[in-house]
Design goal:
Blueprint lengths: L2 E10 L2 E11 L4 E5 L6 H9 L11 E4 L2 E2 L10 E4 L11 H10 L9 H14 L15 H14 L4 E5 L7 H18 L2 E6 L2 H7 L2 E6 L2 E6 L1 H6 L4 H6 L4 E8 L2 E4 L2 E4 L5 E7 L4 E4 L6 E13 L2 E7 L7 E6 H6 L7 E6 L9 H15 L1
Parallel strand pairs: 3-8, 3-9, 6-7, 7-8
Antiparallel strand pairs: 1-2, 1-4, 4-5, 9-10, 11-12, 11-14, 12-13, 13-16, 15-19, 16-17, 16-19, 17-18
């Protein structure tokens, strides 16, 4: 079931929660709505669900397939909704929680008790909880409760599955396990799904495409790989992971900031460069292209790499550089060691007027 949104906007009083938004979700696609708090992602999800109504506008359309559901009540939209905090009935067993939506259907739509039992047991098998069918929510772990919540949402065979921060209440290891499990289940069943998250890793790992939102607007829609490799603007770049900043004055192709020097292909003037931790390396001497002296303040082995934190007078905030274990050993990296950062690549986004004013104020502060 495809989802098409056209000119969806929302005000709460005088505050605009969503600017006019257009979005197409293909049938069977898993879409992540990603953004900071207040970006409008949950409001958009609730509008798709029918829990919120968009502003009244003749151009507004919300379609499930070819069916216009813009003004259709939530109970008639055939959606499944999974909440962050499970919303399970504490006095009911796992089996009864999953069966609940089926048992309260109007009589003409309600399956027989035998069909309900068969469907519920099949769902519990899918979510790997058959052996816990008679337990109560309080007897389950957080991850198990969330799987019950998902099975309950799927019991009604919804055309669309919506998830609001589905793993936000779980610890990191359980979140990772459930992300893999949900992706596998989605691929097996082929339902159309939209989920909300503020966790960049979660969005990039789970989604077919990611919708990055900010201040009620869509900043970029793309596959996880394209989004990470080619951010459309500075906001997207900075929101998707750790970022190192290098700001200085460029003259004759040399960017200068205190003791730091870097050869760049930029016009004269003040510029700021952005790079990710893996887009730089470390050396014990400068070279003809880069002279960026720094002091190591932390060395943290993380899996296949070592994350090194650097500080220097020319930095507005500490840098993070990811290096290989053998490079860390060769340079004898330890807290207090003096090294030179060498950017492998960098990104530059033209400043808005507001950003330019902030850069000017920072430069004036640094010179006093």
């Amino acid at each position: 079931m495809s989802i098409r949104l056209h000119h969806i906007q929302k005000h709460f009083g005088r505050s605009q929660a969503l600017s006019p938004i257009d979005l197409d979700v293909a049938s069977g696609e898993l879409i992540g709505l990603l953004g900071p708090s207040g970006s409008g992602k949950t409001t958009l999800l609730r509008i798709i669900a029918g829990l919120e109504t968009p502003d009244d506008n003749p151009a507004t359309r919300l379609l499930f397939g070819e069916r216009d559901v813009t003004r259709v009540h939530v109970r008639d939209r055939r959606i499944g909704f999974v909440f962050q905090h499970y919303a399970l009935f504490r006095h009911m067993s796992v089996f009864d929680n999953v069966a609940f939506g089926l048992t309260v259907l109007p009589r003409r739509e309600r399956p027989s008790s035998g069909d309900i039992r068969t469907r519920v047991l099949r769902l519990l098998e899918m979510v790997q909880l058959s052996h816990l069918a008679q337990r109560f929510p309080a007897q389950l772990s957080g991850g198990q409760q969330q799987r019950v919540s998902l099975a309950r949402a799927l019991a009604l065979r919804p055309e669309v599955l919506l998830l609001d921060e589905p793993f936000g209440a779980l610890d990191a290891k359980v979140r990772q396990e459930l992300r893999r499990w949900l992706r596998h289940l989605h691929d097996e069943l082929g339902f159309t799904s939209v989920f909300v998250t503020h966790d960049q890793e979660e969005a990039l790992e789970l989604s077919d495409r990611v919708v990055v939102m900010s201040n009620g607007r869509i900043e970029q829609i793309d596959t996880p790989e394209a989004l990470y490799r080619a951010p459309a603007n500075r906001f997207v770049f900075e929101f998707l992971g750790d970022v190192n900043h290098l700001e200085g004055q460029v003259h004759n192709g040399i960017l200068t900031c205190g003791d730091a020097r870097l050869r760049v292909s930029l016009p004269d003037g003040r510029h700021e460069l952005l790079l990710r931790p893996h887009e730089a390396t470390l050396a014990d001497t400068p070279d003809e292209r880069a002279n960026l002296p720094a002091v190591v303040t932390a060395v943290v082995p993380v899996g296949a790499e070592v994350r090194v934190e650097l500080s220097a007078d020319w930095m507005s905030e500490p840098w993070l550089v990811a290096v290989r274990h053998q490079d860390a050993e060769r340079l004898n990296l330890a807290r207090g060691a003096r090294v030179y950062a060498r950017p492998l690549t960098w990104h530059h986004y033209p400043e808005t007027a507001g950003q330019a004013r902030r850069s000017e104020r920072r430069a004036q502060t640094a010179s006093t």
